[in-house]
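Q: Sequence in, structure out?
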Amino acid sequence: MRHLFLSLLLAVSSTVVVANELAEVKAEVTFRSTVINQTTQFVERTVNMIATPFLSDRDVECMARNIFYEAGGESTEGKIAVGVVTLNRTQDGRFGKTVCDVVKARTVVVKNKEIKRTEVVKVGYFGRPEMIERKEVVMQQVPVCQFSWVCSGIARKPKSDDERWVESQEIAQKLAEGEFQEERAKYGSALFFHNGGVRPLWAKTKQLVARTGHHLFYE
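A: Exactly. Output:
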């Protein structure tokens, strides 16, 4: 009986020891996993910061305004997406060298315009002068803003206590610091976007990347 009791006692003790060892192993695995995750996030932020061109305070302000006027009513992701497109255009090189250049960029397009002219001509046997109206279609080069709010003339300075403006500023600053890795990956190739309520002709020639809120994004 005594031997049986000792055997049971040893078995219980071994079980407790094993349980404690397993708990320690589990804690160690959790700790290492946490460290790895934190290290990975740090590396990703560092890589994004290296990939992100240096942004001056003025550039961050320009990006915040672009986010606010283009996506002020959108979700956080919608605002981030517009910010990422702004950065993508800066890195692409075709739209400007700085964020402010990109935001204020204009593209020259050719449009047909009908012009009416009034001329005096002589009619009849005696050359009686008469006023006639002539119509002529001419092609004109018209500068078009890449972001509509820039040319709208109605964009007012955001109020400092406007939550949409506050969030736009925060997002612009974090993008400048290399944050929002998930959104950067999702919209990393996007260079164009438009509101879903319109159907611009150029959209037919682009590849749809994603859609969020009221905006469609293309590469």
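Helices lie at 2-51, 57-71, 76-92, 99-104, 148-152, 163-176, 181-186.
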